[in-house]
Amino acid sequence: MKSAKNALTLGRLKEILSYSPVTGLFTYAISRPKCRIGAEAGSVDSRGHVRIGIDGHYHAAHRLAYLWMVGEWPIEDIWHKNLIGTDNRWKNLVQSNRKEADWESVQSKKELTIISNRLGPHLSDVLNHSVKLLKVLKVANIMDEAEIDRCIKALRKAKKGL
Questions:
Q1: Is residue 22 domain-shared with residue 91, that is, in the same domain?
Q2: Do 15 and 69 fall within a single domain?
Q3: 23-57, pLDDT tens digit by residue?
Q4: How many CB atoms neighbour CB 115 within 10 A?
Q5: More confident residue, 130 or 87
Q6: Same domain flag for 153 and 80
Q7: In total, how many domains does the chain have?
Q8: Please, which residues have CB within 8 angstroms of residue 42's CB and are 6 or more apart in sequence?
Q9: Which strands, in side-by-side order, build the sheet including 43-44?
Q10: CA 9 → CA 15, 93, 120, distances in Å?
């Protein structure tokens, strides 16, 4: 039996909303109170994810994107590759099995997601300054070279995902 949360069907979703896999945005396909056709759907919650109300239930936009593209609800968690919770482009979403994930890694991803969502458009600048700061720490012998190099590689990898 479906839970009330997952009772939403693909047909009902497509009746109410349109989804662009390229932009990651959901827009209204029908007029609703306070919403016109074509208006962007949803709002950002306290965790930095877009949530959309449909038929009295709120759904995470990244889970709705999965339903839209695959035709069924995800069994596992959906992660944003670039850690930006409002970036619901299809190419940015990945399903992961929490049971197989290392718990520390999961916690780190959640923390990074919250940080990156709060920094938003400033994230690229923060990453650039972080690389510069790490180089200063290296010169001052506060961190060893291997640690600095690992951090710089991780920051550059994160920056590419933007």
A1: yes
A2: yes
A3: 999 999 998 778 899 999 999 998 889 999 999 99
A4: 13
A5: 87
A6: no
A7: 2
A8: 26, 50, 51, 52, 53, 61
A9: 43-44, 50-54, 57-60
A10: 10, 20, 32
